[in-house]
Amino acid sequence: MGKTNDSRSPGARPDPVRSFNRWKKKHSHKQSQKKQLRKQLKKPEWQVEREVISRLMQNYEKINVNEITRFSDFPLSKKTLKGLQEAQYRLVTEIQKQTIGLALQGKDVLGAAKTGSGKTLAFLVPVLEALYRLQWTSTDGLGVLIISPTRELAYQTFEVLRKVGKNHEFSAGLIIGGKDLKHEAERINNINILVCTPGRLLQHMDETICFHATNLQMLVLDEADRILDMGFADTMNAIIENLPKKRQTLLFSATQTKSVKDLARLSLKNPEYVWVHEKAKYSTPATLEQNYIVCELQQKISVLYSFLRSHLKKKSIVFFSSCKEVQYLYRVFCRLRPGISVLALHGRQQQMRRMEVYNEFVRKRAAVLFATDIAARGLDFPAVNWVLQFDCPEDANTYIHRAGRTARYKEDGEALLILLPSEEKGMVQQLLQKKVPVKAIKINPEKLIDVQKKLESFLAQDQDLKERAQRCFVSYIRSVYLMKDKEIFDVSKLPIPEYALSLGLAVAPRVRFLQKMQKQPTRELVVSQDNKVSEPRAPSLTNDEVEEFRAYFNEKMSILQKGGKRAEGTEDGLANGISDEEEEKEDEEEIEEKLGKGKESQPQFVPSTDESWKNKETAIHFLDRADDEEEDDDGLDADFLKVKRHNVFGLDLKENKALQKKEASKSSVKKKVTKVAEAKKVMKRNFKVNKKITFTDEGELVQQWPQMQKSVLKDTEEEDDTGGINLDKAKERLQEEDKFDKEAYRKKIKAKHREKRLKEREARREASKRQAKAKDEEEAFLDWSDDDDDDGFDPSTLPDPDKYRSSEDSDSEDLENKISDTKKKQGMRKRNNNEVEDTGPTSHNRKKAKWETLEPLDTGLSLAEDEELVLHLLKSQS
Ligand SMILES: Nc1ncnc2c1ncn2[C@@H]1O[C@H](COP(=O)(O)OP(=O)(O)OP(=O)(O)O)[C@@H](O)[C@H]1O
């Protein structure tokens, strides 16, 4: 026993626990060393990304269009692919297949494909990849510019960009008109991808100090042919000037521009033309069924109403040529209650309203949208069944874009074009040339519902609607008049009175430009005849002519004032074809053109030596233009008119005189002369105001005009008046002056009243005198005591004391006192009686009371004689 086991003895096995712990320690140390090493070796994320990018870029060259069916077949970033997948985009469309590869390779691309074929993604994918390739961050500023012709299209593109690019870190911004410029200006510098309309972009380029595009990598023009056409020419040229020359440019449209001149402006480098459907049989989607009907202008509204009544469960877009047509017909159709919800979209609406309408129409399953051409291009409303072209489009391209709002991306759709008999031949020909398969169909007359009477009754009740109808009328005629293709659009063939009736108007409004067009030769004749007469014509102007003359100035001034504010919103007008802002712009151009014509024609008519003829000629030109201006007025709101008219009277005559004196070339801009300016002028010339001074009877001088200041503050004011006007003092002085005037007025009134009172009293006295005289003495004798009023007492009614007591003055005095005492006593008693008898004493009672209170008079006669006397007196009284 007592045997111990020594574990440390040599040869004994080591303790496994201890050795494990030692191993564990070593191992963990090695692991941490390895970890540290790995950490040191690990590349930064950007570096890894760069490697991925370079691998992707190597694959760009290997892209084989024929092998691509899906987006994932392209060498795209994971972030873009994820975004596409999440938005349910997997298979590529033809235009995407053919252009994305080229764009990834950095080439300039001109892409054209039918409407609804997916061109938006064809440029958005390369946009995202371009910035990804460059590892763009928010601090790098603006990298890509996407320009759209309309606000709605820009908004739609921006939404798709947000959806597809949501996994990228770039910032994207939407810059369109109708929002606060300042608000946009604060954010614009942090935007990497900017979706915008041309007008608004240029405004920022001009007005936002820190906005620049020096780092721009890519420029995209959606609906490129539209953006590069004449309408946007100036704006786009200015924008391009601000962009770096070294950049990639992508142009997309369903109707692509082939103009070398247009493309030269963009300085494209060996661009790749991709016309996906160039060899296709038709230039419109195969799933789109297209028909046209021919009907008279006056039938069109009834046709539209009948169409809507038979398509209540469908979603339709109806295109009109001008905003005013949309505005009027929208209201009328809302009142007609066709049984389907009616919406309106046009360039005159507020931006918020436009967005609301856009979103509402996207959401609705069945509805009809009345629109101008702002909705013709690019908009991707889902599930539109019908596109109706109420007014003939400007050209075949506009037709294609309008019709393309239906039958998008493999969906079906139908398009119906309404043509006037005069438009049929030319338009159908154009469409066939453009490979648009349209078939003529006929209206079923049994299904046609005539709404003219209803419209007439609406207008009879509603003045505002009537005015809208008039504007609609003029606007439509003008749109036809301004169309370029005169083979299709012939304004002289329009049934004008019938058209007015169809709008509900009993009388066709005067369309002055048409009248002028018809009268042109006559006017010239008149002028040349007048030319032989030496009498100036101006004095023979009628009042109406003078009014028109004034209206011309007014309109001209308003146009000149508007001049500087046209940048914003230009895109909408341009997108409208012939509508809104474009209408106005064209009006302005027309006016300017006529001004120019006027200048040129003046020497022809005006003998240079005869000044009066210059005046006459000026008047003639103005009247010409006033004709046109009324046409413009049709397009303006009643408030503005009021404002304009208000301006007229301050300007016209001065303008007239100035124009008569100066040459026509200098007449375009006149500075408005204000009353203040005129007053200053007078002050400068040191003119003195005439005074009117009169003399009083006392020979005092009284200044009657200008009125003299009377208040005490006068002197101090004069002392203080060292320079300028002290407003506070002037106010104080006026208040004092006011008090002074009021006091004087009060005194005057008081004196007047006093005088009146005195006159009245005098009149009363006179009347009572006359009354008294008229009564005989007896009566006067009996009545004297009845007189309450001391003033009314007439001493002449008393018996002449001289007759009885001529020498007894003291006695007579006593008698008088007696009488007065008696009178006083009587008066007192009478007052007492009055207090007792509410009803008041009758004259009989009063007399009785008087007799009762009289002291017995000693006549010196016997009682019998006294009685005799009394009886006699009583008899004579009765
Ligand atoms: N690869 C795709 N897969 C599925 N749907 C697609 C694809 N590409 C586009 N689309 C859908 O097709 C519709 C039309 O696309 P998009 O608006 O880009 O046409 P577009 O060619 O630009 O038309 P437009 O000429 O009228 O402007 C959209 O609804 C879009 O979501």
From TrEMBL:
Residues 21-41, 747-756 have a biased composition (Basic residues). Residues 100-274 form the Helicase ATP-binding domain. Residues 579-592, 777-793 have a biased composition (Acidic residues). A motif (Q motif) lies at residues 69-97. It catalyses: ATP + H2O = ADP + phosphate + H(+). CDD domains: DEADc_DDX10, SF2_C_DEAD. SUPFAM superfamilies: P-loop containing nucleoside triphosphate hydrolases. One of its GO terms (molecular function) is ATP binding. Belongs to the DEAD box helicase family. DDX10/DBP4 subfamily. Putative ATP-dependent RNA helicase that plays various role in innate immunity or inflammation. Plays a role in the enhancement of AIM2-induced inflammasome activation by interacting with AIM2 and stabilizing its protein level. Negatively regulates viral infection by promoting interferon beta production and interferon stimulated genes/ISGs expression. Interacts with AIM2; this interaction promotes AIM2 stability. Interacts with SCNA; this interaction causes DDX10 mislocalization to the nucleoplasm and cytoplasmic inclusions. This is ATP-dependent RNA helicase. It comes from Pteropus vampyrus (Large flying fox).
